[in-house]
Specification:
By secondary structure, the protein is of the alpha/beta class. It has 12 helices and 10 strands. The chain is globular and about 55 Å long.
């Protein structure tokens, strides 16, 4: 099954997509710091199973448009991109899958438009209902360290950090963050104050089995061209998203769903994540499966492609 590429207009932006196969539409939404390439193992497998699999470069990434204004990266924009993409591809409905930041896009696409998205799969990040206060007000900060999402808030700071050595940044995030050599002495997701994030991390000496130098080179070339600002702007809308989501306070994701994460993923170790995952059915009443993969870290669909592919195809077949 050949992977093809095209550009489409959706929600007022030009979006680059990689796609393979024919049949019912499956949208694959990547997270940070990734691209359509994160789904390279899924595109062909889903196509072979009889689906039209489409992995876009999300807003701000790769060859897709990158609006300058921070407020152009809210969840309403990101989910609007996916609604428009379904229509631009010539479909009326889809199953939507998301990993990392792509997972909230997938969950909320299904929350907002259950008529359009008939099923949803979230990888790493579970559906999180709207809380009582702006999210950044509850993020950890001590005299010595700050939660990484707070570190990402000020425009220009993280960009300067990550873009000074793009190859090292991506290597550290993609397999350094996933590895046991990662520095987490200050707490899960915490960054020591007074140093750049990159300088606080110890990269692994050897690549894990699931990624190659070719893969790192692909990601590096993408971010050397695009920079990190677009992806970082997603984090800079966390509180704005909270404000915009007020009409959906208490709303549940009502379409069939699956949640998958690695048991060693740092996301599942964030404060409160264990209870949220344990009680996910309260907020996603049609949750069909909740899968925790042993000895798997954050980059689920790249680390364990065969198991992810099998779970996706099983879910899709059951929906049909």
């Amino acid at each position: 099954m050949e992977i093809t590429h095209k550009f489409l207009t959706t929600n007022g932006i030009k979006m680059h997509v990689a796609m393979a196969g024919e049949g019912p539409l499956v949208l694959l939404c990547h997270g940070f710091p990734e691209s359509w390439y994160s789904w390279r193992h899924q595109l062909k497998a889903l196509a072979k199973a009889g689906y039209c699999a489409v992995a876009p470069d999300m807003r701000g990434y790769g060859q897709t448009d990158k609006p300058e204004a921070i407020d152009q990266y809210t969840l309403l924009h990101l989910t609007g991109d996916m609604v428009g993409l379904v229509e631009a591809l010539g479909f009326k409905e889809a199953v939507i899958v998301g990993h990392d930041w792509g997972a909230p896009v997938a969950w909320h696409s299904a929350l907002f438009r259950p008529d359009k998205f008939k099923g949803v799969v979230g990888l790493s990040v579970p559906f999180r209902p709207r809380g009582d206060v702006p999210p950044t007000t509850t993020m950890a900060e001590t005299n010595d360290a700050i939660f990484y999402q707070l570190y990402f808030q000020k425009p220009g700071v993280a960009e300067a950090d990550l873009e000074k050595d793009v190859n090292r940044s991506l290597s550290t995030m993609l397999f350094g963050v996933a590895g046991s050599a990662n520095v987490e002495s200050a707490g899960v997701g915490m960054i020591p104050k007074g140093v750049f994030w990159l300088d606080s991390r110890i990269p692994l000496n050897a690549m894990p089995h699931w990624i190659t130098q070719t893969d790192i080179d692909f990601y590096s070339n993408e971010f050397k061209r695009s920079g990190f600002r677009g992806g970082l702007n997603w984090y800079r809308n966390i509180d704005r998203n909270w404000e915009l989501l007020a009409p959906w306070a208490g709303a549940k994701v009502i379409v069939p769903a699956v949640y998958i994460a690695g048991e060693r993923d740092l996301v599942v170790k964030f404060p409160g994540a264990d209870k949220l995952i344990e009680n996910l059915e309260q907020f996603v009443p049609q949750l069909r499966e909740k899968i925790l993969l042993p000895d798997c870290r954050h980059w689920t669909q790249q680390e364990r492609p065969e198991e992810i592919n099998a779970a996706l195809i099983r879910f899709l077949k059951e929906l049909n």
